[in-house]
Amino acid sequence: MKVTVTTRDGAEHTVEAREGLSLMQNIRNAGLDELQAICGGSLSCATCHVYVDALPEGGGLLERSRDEDDLLDACDELTDTSRLSCQIVLGPALDGMRVTIAPEY
Question: Given 3.40.50.300, 3.20.20.70, 3.10.20.30, 3.30.2130.10, which CATH number is that of 2-101?
């Protein structure tokens, strides 16, 4: 499966993603170090903040948890499409999704 990731400089990268891993893990495995992910996916920071730009037809995300909402609330650049990439587990329904790495906070 593939995910398109736009970095802060506007460059688009097609990431060959592995099903069952989080979006954060797949982005980091692709060598895009711009996504800090300091806590390693333990839902204790917001340094893996992304904007979900587009989902494939029929694809959808689970609702944000209360913990994810709390962490995102601390971000200066919060939008309606903000998510923590560590909380998005990739599966076939998300093949082709597009995200942008949010500004550092």
Answer: 3.10.20.30
pLDDT at position 59 is 85
- In 3D, which of 28, 5, 3 has the Cα closest to residue 100? 5
Q: For residue 22, count CB atoms less than 10 angstroms from its CB and return exposed for 0-12, middle for 13-18, buried for 19 or more.
A: buried
Encode pLDDT of 62-79 as tens digits.
999 999 999 999 998 999
Q: State the pLDDT confidence band at 58, using cuts at 50, 70 and 90.
A: confident
For residues 94 and 3, the answer to whether their CB atoms sit within 8 Å is yes
- What's the predicted TM-score (pTM) here? 0.94
Q: Which of 39, 37, 48, 40 is nearest to 83 (CA)?
A: 48
Q: Is 37 exposed, middle or buried (0-12, 13-18, 19+ CB in 10 A)?
A: buried
